[in-house]
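Example 5.3 — UPF0246 protein GCM10023211_13580
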Amino acid sequence: MITVISPAKTLDYDTPVNDAKFTQPELMNYSQTLIKSCKSLNANAIADLMKISPKLAELNYERFQNWQPNFTTQNARQAILAFKGDVYEGLHVEDFSEADFSFAQNHLRILSGLYGLLKPLDLMQPYRLEMGIKLKNGTNSNLYQFWGDIITQQLNQQLASEKHPTLVNLASNEYFKSIKPKQLKANIITPVFLDESKGQYKVISFYAKKARGLMSRYLIKNQLQQANDMLSFDLAAYQFDKSLSDEHQWVFKRSEKQAEHDKQQSKA
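Solution (predicted C-alpha cells):
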C-alpha cells in the first residue's frame, strides 16, 4: 500500500536536522529538463506565470538559477523535512523514529511539479513549481502534459510487488490529476474529511489539509499495510462514516463539539 500526498509551497531549509539518511530522486533527468525551461524565465515572467508577488518571483528566479543536479546534504534537504504547511503540520515528522522514517520511505510518496514523485528521504533543492502551472516545455503546454504517464508508471513499478496493490490518495485534486487512474494497476481509496459548520458537514480546506497529514501520520506510526486498518483512524476526533462512504471514497467526519473537545485536550 502506497500513500500519495501533495508538496507544500512553504519550505524550511534553516532548521537543523539530525537525520543523515537520504536518497536521490529517481526522475532527475526529467527535473533537469524542466529546470532548463525555468532558468530561461526572468523574475517578471515567473511572477506572471505563478501569479505571485515580485519578491517571491525574485526568490524563485534565484532558486532556479542556483539549482544544479548534484544533490548533497550541504545544498539540499530530505523532502519530508523540507516541506512545511498544513499537511506537514498534521504529519508532524519532528517526533518520527528511525522505524517511522523507514516505513514512510517504503509507503509514502510526495507528488511534485518539478521532481515528479519523491520518496520522503529523497534530497531536493528548494523550488516552487506547482503542478497546475502552465509551464511550456517543448511541445508540452503544461506540467500534466510533460509528466504524461511517467508518474503513473513509476507508481506501478513500486506497487508491482504488492499482493493487493492499493493507492491511498491523500493528495489535492491539482496533484492527483498527474496520476492516470485507468492506467494505475491498483485499487484507489480517497479519504474525505468533513467538518461540521453551522449544522452542515462539508470539506473545509484548512482542516482537510491537516487531516490528510494526520492520516499519513496514522498510517506511518501504526505501520498499516491493509486498507481496512484505516477505518479505525480517530486522530483529531475524526470518525469513519460508513453511511456516507463507498468502495473508493471513505468519509471521515467530526462535529464542531468533537473538534473543540480535541482542541482542549491538545492544550491540556
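Remark. DSSP finds eleven helices and ten strands in the chain.
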